[in-house]
Design goal:
single chain; alpha+beta; six-stranded antiparallel β-sheet; globular
Length: about 160
């Protein structure tokens, strides 16, 4: 690697602290992720999700799909994963997902994009130096059509928490 590139590189902190999350702030998460048919088949098989519409194109077409739809749990996990760098890098406990809704089918070769909006924020009553932040996360395809959405929350460190 060129020493010039290394010399010009600047470290950049990832994630945000509790104080950075204001209700209403929206985060557009990084560049997205294209899901292939192979990934869909592998995920579906490894998770023992034996619904044939995710692995059998003729069955999927008989159910009204143009192709085998991507397993909705893979779609959810991918959208969730796209949000982690922005939302929970400075977090500890993941507090759960609520109101998961799959709005439209997602197909192999499509690309997922995600954005999240802060919907709740409060200091923790039991964990000094921490707060609880809640987000509404949405996943979109490359045509900006809503594919899935959910709410989630994490315990997040304050910038000047007790261990800092």
């Amino acid at each position: 690697m060129s020493q010039d590139i290394v010399a010009r590189a600047k470290p950049r902190e990832k994630g945000y602290w509790y104080e950075d999350f204001e209700i209403g702030r929206t985060f557009v998460h990084h560049w997205g992720r294209t899901i292939s048919q192979a990934e869909n088949a592998l995920f579906t098989t490894l998770t023992l999700h034996f619904n044939p519409q995710y692995t059998n194109v003729e069955f999927a077409k008989a159910m009204g799909h143009r192709d085998t739809p991507v397993n909705p749990l893979l779609v959810f996990n991918t959208v969730f994963g796209l949000s982690v760098q922005d939302l929970s890098e400075h977090g500890t406990a993941f507090l759960g997902v609520n109101e998961l809704n799959h709005v439209a089918p997602f197909y192999p070769g499509d690309t997922l994009f995600a954005r999240s909006t802060v919907i709740d924020q409060r200091l923790s009553g039991s964990k000094k130096g921490m707060g609880i932040v809640g987000w509404h996360t949405q996943g979109f395809n490359q045509q900006d059509e809503l594919i899935c959405e959910f709410k989630r929350s994490n315990l997040i460190f304050l910038r000047e928490g007790p261990s800092r």
